[in-house]
Amino acid sequence: MKFGVIRFPGSCDEVDAQLACQRVGEAVILWHGDRDLQGVDAVVVPGGFSYGDYLRVGAIARFAPVMEEVARFARAGGIVLGICNGFQVLCEAGLLPGALLPNTSLKFIFRQVQLEVVSAASPFTGACAAGDRLSIPVKHTTGRFYAPADQLDALEANDQVLLRYAAGHNPNGSLRDIAGVCNEARNVFGLMPHPEHAVDPFTGPTGGLPIFESIRAHVAEHALV
Amino acid sequence: MRARVLVKPKAGILDPQAQAVERALPALGFTGVRNVHVGRLIELDVEDPGRLPEMCQRLLTNPLIEDYEIVEDAES
Questions:
Q1: Which one of A21, A190, B41, B60 counts the least CB within 10 Å of its CB?
Q2: Domain range for residue B22?
Q3: Which ranges in chain A belong to alpha helices (H)?
């Protein structure tokens, strides 16, 4: 399968994301100004500080030419993974519910966290089982997941919360310990932790790998032959 | 037309920046301060102020988390 990883001005995790994708398939970098998704099977919107995070995190990046194509791809059922700043961009673009607010500590946080898989019924967590623990690092200043209470209830009722911070591991004040949510159609997923930084035993735990393996398995299963 | 858009976090959303300010003021002897909100000011010259609400909805603010107020400068 082929992943496309977007590079905005200000992205900084796109190479790690590409390397993580390459553990399970091919991966190309997609430039923010291009409209050609190069026939990829899945898109990764990576971490960083797209367009300097001016105005609000993710607010400007959503207007990038490539994001119009990503929105079209997502509406057609294409697999889209947003990591950290990518999560913020997808929320601003309206492809994911909610918004990310400054951490309650108002500090940049950089640490390993334990995540709990809430739902394995998705293209992003299919290789896991509900209740699995994943050890993945976070690094952000604006990662407090917020949505109004009725929307949070709906997210939980629809099984759209795929990952939570394990008890005692919520680093940023996210409501209901939400670390990652998907859209209603379950083909777009965003999370604040960085699975792409947790794929190589040389540098630590490999809790991020199941996310990429899940996507590969999903795409293989649904490939039109 | 000169206009100002005042943006602040929606009521009810935890605003740790405002809390920090509210805690810091009494430390300097400024007592009796409550309900602090810290937001953002956007000033702009605009040919058609009628389009300001749409600008606020689509780019200048995120309506899910922010409230805004448009102040048109009558003298401009």
A1: B41
A2: 2-72
A3: 14-22, 65-75, 85-92, 149-157, 209-222
- pTM for this entry: 0.94
Total number of domains in chain B: 1
**Cβ-defined contact of A59 to B17 (cutoff 8 Å):** no
- Structure tokens given for A225: 């032959």
Contacts of A64 (CB under 8 A, 6+ apart): A8, A32, A33, A50, A51
* pLDDT of B33 higher than 90: yes
CATH of the domain at B10: 3.30.1280.10
Q: Where do the structural domains in chain A lie, given as residue ranges?
A: 2-222
Nearest to A106 among B20, B62, B64 (CB): B20
Return the residue in A51, A54, A56, A107 with the most chain B beta carbons within 10 A, the one to mutate for interface testing. Answer: A56
Summarize pLDDT for A162-212 with one digit per residue, the tens: 999 999 999 999 999 999 999 999 999 999 999 999 999 999 999 999 999
ipTM of the complex: 0.87
Respond yes or no: is residue A84 known to be catalytic: yes
Assess B17–A contact: CB distance below 8 Å, yes or no.
yes
